[in-house]
């Protein structure tokens, strides 16, 4: 009976006998959590409001300078207001308007530069969203690994209890020794220690996910779906190309480089003068004739200051271009690294799935049968048991790391891998 118990445990035919009864809890798909995070995460919302605020910069930068309305009073013979107004044609009350006029093209360049700054803020929203989603995915995969391996630990602890009963029965009839029972109890304690560590790590991941989702920390815990290995794209070249085109951090640097180019153009334009127009109507009482005065002014730029501004703009242009190149190289290097991690992880998962795990399972079944027939010592049986437990845990950990690498690739490239 115990041999059959061990065999059907690893074949997955008696899960009801090998795992403790737990309440059925509905697992939450990752896709629904991603949608929730994009709607509720405070960092994403803050970036979105920042972009909405920046979207008004272009209209502000491209507008004309504020118009001035003027009221004048010229008194004659006394500092009091309106003195001499009725008996002197020099006293008057005047109403006027004045407007500054930038050199043609300056307002357009200012508007375009501000628009590029808003464009960078738009990319910042996407960058914040991708960062949060990446963190959420990795936390989800880590939590899925912990929940899956916790189930494995609970199941194997149940099996270990059966092994301990066998060892105790053999000891009572004189076929075994007390050391076998003690070793089984020691392994049971180790599993309890691992279970406790899993509970602690799960609590950490739950807290992180609730923070990313904008949920209250006392809200119900999240139950993950089992992990499934996704296929890795066969060619990294396409991922590298998409990184250069779709990565939000690269887009931010590109917008800032384009803005620096516009600022250089604007610095050249600043060497050209601006203009001002003013019109004034002056009333000198009805017995005298009114005055009408129009003024046209030219504001000549300080060329020394403008040369310094141009030099600054040129250096900032070079810095922005270098920062763009550096960002592209950094992100593409990350894509290459994560692709290699996922590729090697795919090979490792295959080794676990097709080699180590089946071999360890077969070894354990053989050791259990031999131990029951008194042809195998308990140490060998316990060693094979630990191998099965260790390889199952390592497989789940490797699967979590594989999916985390794909999540980073998705964040870097903007591609959703199937």
Explain this structure to me?
It is a single chain. With 418 residues, this protein is α+β, with helices and mostly antiparallel strands. It has a single domain, classed as Up-down Bundle (Outer membrane efflux proteins (OEP)), CATH 1.20.1600.10. Helices cover 68% and strands 9% of the residues. It contains eleven helices and four strands, in the order αααααββααααββαα. A four-stranded antiparallel beta sheet has the order 1-2-3-4, with no helix packed on it. Strand 3 (274-283) and strand 4 (291-299) form a beta hairpin. Helix 4 packs antiparallel against helix 6 and helix 6 packs antiparallel against helix 11. The radius of gyration is 38 Å and the shape is elongated. The two termini are 44 Å apart. 29% of the residues are buried. Residues 1-23 have low confidence and may be disordered.
**Kindly, what is the distance between the CA atoms of the first and last residues, rounded to a whole number of angstroms?**
44 Å
Rg for CA atoms: 38 Å
What number is the mean pLDDT? 87
Query: What is the CATH architecture term?
Result: Up-down Bundle
- Counted up, domains total 1
Strand coverage percent:
5-15%
């Amino acid at each position: 009976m115990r041999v059959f118990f061990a065999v059907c445990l690893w074949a997955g035919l008696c899960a009801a006998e090998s795992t403790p009864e737990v309440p059925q809890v509905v697992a939450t798909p990752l896709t629904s959590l991603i949608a929730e995070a994009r709607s509720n995460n405070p960092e994403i919302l803050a970036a979105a409001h920042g972009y909405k605020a920046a979207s008004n910069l272009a209209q502000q930068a491209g507008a004309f300078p504020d118009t001035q309305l003027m009221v004048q009073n010229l008194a004659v013979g006394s500092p009091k207001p309106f003195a001499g107004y009725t008996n002197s044609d020099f006293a008057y009350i005047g109403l006027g308007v004045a407007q500054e006029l930038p050199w043609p093209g300056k307002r357009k360049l200012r508007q375009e530069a501000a628009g590029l700054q808003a464009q960078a803020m738009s990319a910042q929203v996407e960058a914040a969203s991708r960062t949060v989603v990446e963190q959420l995915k990795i936390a989800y995969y880590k939590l899925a690994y912990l929940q899956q391996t916790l189930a494995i630990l609970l199941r194997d602890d149940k099996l270990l209890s059966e092994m301990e009963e066998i060892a105790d029965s053999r000891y009572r009839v004189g076929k075994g020794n007390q050391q076998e029972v003690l070793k089984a109890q020691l392994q049971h304690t180790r599993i309890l220690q691992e279970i406790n560590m899993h509970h602690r790590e799960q609590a950490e991941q739950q807290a992180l996910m609730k923070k990313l989702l904008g949920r209250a920390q006392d809200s119900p815990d999240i139950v993950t779906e089992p992990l499934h290995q996704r296929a890795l794209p066969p060619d990294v070249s396409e991922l590298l190309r998409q990184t250069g085109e779709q990565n939000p951090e690269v887009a931010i640097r590109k917008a800032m480089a384009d803005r620096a180019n516009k600022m250089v153009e604007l610095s050249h334009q600043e060497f050209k003068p601006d203009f001002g127009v003013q019109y004034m109507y002056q009333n000198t009482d009805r017995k005298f004739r009114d005055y009408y005065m129009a003024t046209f002014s030219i504001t000549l730029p300080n060329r020394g200051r403008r040369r310094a501004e141009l030099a600054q703009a040129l250096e900032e242009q070079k810095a922005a271009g270098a920062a763009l190149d550096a960002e592209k190289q950094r992100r593409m290097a990350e894509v290459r690294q994560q692709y290699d991690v996922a590729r090697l992880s795919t090979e490792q998962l295959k080794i676990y799935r097709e080699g180590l795990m089946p071999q360890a399972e077969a070894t354990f079944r053989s050791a259990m049968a031999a131990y029951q027939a008194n042809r195998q010592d308990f140490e060998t049986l316990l060693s094979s048991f630990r191998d099965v437990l260790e390889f199952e845990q390592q497989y789940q950990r490797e699967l979590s790391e594989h999916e985390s690498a794909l999540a980073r690739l998705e964040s870097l490239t903007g591609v959703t891998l199937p």
